[in-house]
Amino acid sequence: MNISPIAIIMLIAGGLMLTFGFIASDSIASSFSRLFTGEPTDKAIFLLIGGAVALGIGLIMSLRPGKS
User: Fold this and answer.
1) What whole-number distance in Å separates Cα of residue 68 and Cα of residue 64?
2) Where does the pLDDT of residue 45 fall: very low under 50, low under 70, confident under 90, or very high at 90 and above?
3) Count of CB atoms within 10 A of residue 45's CB?
4) Helical residues (DSSP H) of 1-68, grouped into ranges
5) Is 54 exposed, middle or buried (0-12, 13-18, 19+ CB in 10 A)?
6) pLDDT of residue 36
7) Which of 61, 67, 44 is nearest to 10 (CA)?
8) pTM of the prediction?
9) Over residues 7-27, mean pLDDT
């Protein structure tokens, strides 16, 4: 099974973005934002959504059959 380098990059980037998103959602700025608006900061939300999308694309690319 050959996994394309782009799929590997997407998997790594998605994992990093999710990690940074979870860290950002636990930050002091996000706590203040949650206090007043009930939601974490936009940066945390964008990192979490972007990470999930990148991870999903990387998984789909790595699981589909490659060209022979």
Assistant:
1) 12
2) very high
3) 16
4) 5-25, 28-37, 42-63
5) buried
6) 87
7) 61
8) 0.83
9) 94
